[in-house]
Each structure stands twice: as structure tokens, then as C-alpha cells.
Amino acid sequence: MDENKSSISQANAYLEIGEFWDNHDVTDYWEQTKPVNFEVDIQSLVNLWLQDKLAHEI
Predict the structure, then answer these.
(1) Mean pLDDT in each 10-residue stretch from start to end of the chain (58 residues)?
(2) Which end of the chain has fewer CB atoms < 10 Å from its terminal CB, N or C?
(3) Is 40 left (phi over 0), alpha (psi -120 to 50) or beta?
(4) DSSP designation for 12
């Protein structure tokens, strides 16, 4: 992930990025952010959400 290193957290792995943002607030870094475009596969997202909810119900 070196070529995609998170510019704010300076993390080298997705887990490290998650840990950084678990302990920091984006409003403290707002001036360092920039707009981006992305697409979300809503059907896959809903399926994952349902699987998670069902797993916790059993």
C-alpha cells in the first residue's frame, strides 16, 4: 500500500488507517482533505449489512 499511503495518517496499511481514525476527528484535519468521487455498489452493501445483522441474531 506504499504508493497509496494515507496522506493524513501516514499509515502503511488499512488497519493502521482505521486505528488512526478511531482515535482522531476529521474536523481536526479538514483543511488537509480534498473532494473525491467514488461509486458504491449498494446491493453488495445491503447484502453485507443483512448478513451481519442475521449473524448477530442467531
Answers:
(1) 71 92 96 92 92 89
(2) C
(3) beta
(4) S
